[in-house]
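Lab notes, practical 5.
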Amino acid sequence: MDYIEKFKNYSTKQTVNLIMKALSNTSDENLIRLTYAAERIAPKFKPEIGKVRKMFEEKAPAYFLAQKVLKEIHPNVRDKIVLNFMINYILLGPKNRENFEKREGIPCPATLVISPTMRCNLRCIGCYAGDYSKKDDLPLEYVDKIITEAKKMGTYFYVISGGEPFVRDDMLDIYKKHNDATFMIYTNGTFIDKDMALKLQELGNVAPAISVEGLKKETDQRRGEGVWEKVMQAMDNCKEARLIYGFSITPTRHNTETVYSDELMKLLTEEKGCPFGWYFTYIPIGKNPDVNLMQTPEQRLYGWRRVNYLRNRYPVFIGDFWNDGMHVNGCIAGGRQSGYLHVNVKGDYEPCVFTHCATHNVRNTTLRETLASPLFQAIRKRQPYSDNLMLPCMIIDNPRVLREVVNECNAYPTHGNAHTILTKCAEHLDKYSKEYSELSKPFWEKVYIRKEGMPKTIPKKLEEVKDLIEEIRKK
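Output from the prediction step:
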């Protein structure tokens, strides 16, 4: 290592120390100072950091979110968020991944999703988790292998999915061993009692994303009687332990109005204390795929508009996995540098959590070999799949792409019903993708091409969305 590089590393460490000291006082002045310190660590992101500083200065919802997180969470959790997430993942990670790509000629994803088990204590309607036993779990040695290799490339953010991840106590050892990384866990919440919440507090680097289907009626209807109360208690336990935790919602044809409602968002953010949340529209995959559970094109567009409203109304970070394509340049599957890939319970490297095909497995190939594989390269070569970035997905927006890459690369299905998305569901997906393309086009052109901004009036009912779309079509 030359002297210049040593000086850069020393300067970074000194800046991090200053940031950690500043966290003890979350005054307006200190929040602003933190943004300048972040610019010193990652000058490449100076424009983006400047936007954050402006939001702090204008006291936008992001300001109140930052105040809430830094003031209310436990010091151990707060320190891990800053060191693991903000420093390792957001500020230093991109440079490390760029260096890997320059050296190897292939990208390194920002995130890895791992499903170490598909066991679950619930039987939710339409869920892609099936009937699995402990013997089907991905051995811990492979979970460790994946993370160890990915960190060397510059990946420090891991999403743990399933199944229900908390059925595996040994995963706590993984979070402890890799204490320089951040883990977000999608969970039904039923295992997060007070004792588990304290264990997560001690670890500091784990953020549960707890699933709800709407309010009590919708959640118990899909997840089982009494689950709503357990979910609410899990959030209370996280709040008492001063963790960082959020919500995960699957909009379907039956719960669309409820999941985007002010009533639910007030409950989750103001009462239960969630600083982040995710929306994942229902995709017909898994053991019992049902296209009738999918949102209609009108419902999906309604969700896009409502999420933009909720972001500006509540102090919460919201990610909308299918409707945020314009913010990430389309599909993020296939291991692209700012994207991700999925390692399923069998060890198969899948391009996406919802794309159940593969050509490589962790048992006999490396992550690097997978990223360089024809399947992953074929996907990345086609991204983005449409000029309209409101249509990011190769499953429901551009279904021809998934069929092409599977056939071109001779990818195998990773479970028994994986082929249905290409066969049984094909006609419905072709019709759906065409309809949503037509509906979204005027909004794509108005908001993102002509930069006219989001329409000021946010319709409260689905019928109003349909009327608005009809007006645009006539023009």
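Observations recorded by the TA: Residues 1-7 have pLDDT under 50 and may be disordered. The chain has two domains: 3-97, 106-475.
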